[in-house]
Amino acid sequence: MSSVEREEFRTQPAEVRRAHTLSPMSSLARAVLIHGPIHRGDLLRRLQLTPPTLTRLSKPLLDGGVIVEAGETLSGTVGRPAKPLDIPRNPRRFLGVKLTSETAFGVVSDQRALAFARADRALASHDVSVVVDAIAELFDELNHDGDEAIAGVGVSVGGRVIGNRIVDNVRFLEWTSVDLGGALEDRLGVPVTIENDLIALIEGEHWFGLGRSMRDFAVITIGAGIGYGLVWDDSVVRTPETGIELGGHLPLAPGGPRCFRGHHGCATAMLTVESIREQVREATGDELSYEQILEGAAQGEPVLKHIVDAAARALGRYIALAANLAMVHQVLLAGEGTGILDVARTEVMRVIDEERDPDARPITIVVDETGFGIWAKGAAAVAIQTSFDRSIAAL
Fold first, then answer.
1. Does residue 1 surpass a pLDDT of 50?
2. SS3 113
3. Which whole-number Å values give the CA distances from 117 to 34, 94, 146, 377, 379, in the listed order?
4. How much is the pTM?
5. Does this chain's domain 93-203+374-393 share its CATH topology with 211-367?
6. CB 60: neighbour CB atoms within 10 A?
7. Distant-in-sequence, close-in-space partners of 146: CB < 8 Å, separation ≥ 6
8. Of the candidates 372, 343, 296, the residue with the CA atom closest to the CA atom of residue 102
9. Which of 135, 181, 233, 384 is the residue whose CA sits 20 to 30 A from 98?
């Protein structure tokens, strides 16, 4: 694929705005999947539909078996019994795989992202065939015969992904224009969805995780890199720039340490785990883990506390900027670097208060502490989305 072809593919409006162009029937089905069993009255409020429209949209979904009526419950102490809508019980499984520079992490889930099994494979090299072999080994280990066979695979990777198939720019794997989706489908024989890891994480949080009850919120991830994403009006915002780490280089601390691109005091320089460890190495000569640094800062060790407090102030500024510019008041944090809140939450909140208008709603910070598995679970979520959308399209 040439650079011109990649640009044309990358900027197709249908692809860029996919999450915002769902049909009303797809929106209804997704709401039932995410929030079911759910009463029709709740769906009317959530989707802003009229009762006749809800009846018209739900009929083909019910007839096609995409959604079902659950057992009868009363909507109140008196009145006509109402049957909530839900998805049918289905033993189908989905494999989610998160790729890093060294490992393929896999998790198998049901269609509501309830995890059943996990496994991982080390990557002997970054050769495409080696990575495909590792994912195929995970598939073979975690797959079962019969009704519980894996029906679809989602793979998330840190970089730009085109059309849920082409890995176009992944720095840590040194890949450009790799048809990973096609290679895996040929090997595994099931539908495969490739997605940027941040988008996959946000989709997983939005559909099945801590963002399930939130309609508008920002997501900030802290770890080996810095990620930023947004859910607005119940949809994940996607742009042609997804996957090129724009949020990682937001200036936060003028005169601060430099990132690998030479930016002083950007989010990557101030907040990534490796940058904080490097600051400690330069200041003390000691090789400390991130956990040891946080523990020392909590105990008041001056050098460590100085570095961690500076990072906390940068995080507070990042959260305030995200909330102010996106006009949201809920922020979800994820990644292995979120432990900084346990040590320096007071400093984070102090900066947020300073940089947030006093008339604005207070910011609610939600932290996902489930660990690295949430990234693979997000990859499973995009596979579930693909399967669900195909079921609706087939009606």
1. no
2. coil
3. 21, 11, 17, 11, 14
4. 0.85
5. yes
6. 14
7. none
8. 372
9. 233
Architecture of domain 93-203+374-393: 2-Layer Sandwich (3.30)
Residue 374's pLDDT band, with cuts at 50, 70 and 90, is confident
Does residue 266 carry a pLDDT above 70? yes
pLDDT at 7 over 70: no
The answer to whether the peptide bond before residue 37 is cis (omega within 30 degrees of 0) is yes
Query: Can you give the residue ranges of every domain in the chain?
Result: 3-86, 93-203+374-393, 211-367
Pairing verdict, β 150-157 and 192-196: parallel
Maximum C-alpha span of the chain: 73
CA torsion angle for 178, 181, 184, 188 (degrees, to 10)? -170
CATH number attached to the domain at 211-367:
3.30.420.40
What CATH class does 3-86 carry? mainly alpha
pLDDT value for 81: 59
Cα angle: 54, vertex 232, 193; to 5 degrees: 80
Average pLDDT, the chain: 88
| Residue reference for tokens 């797959």 | 143
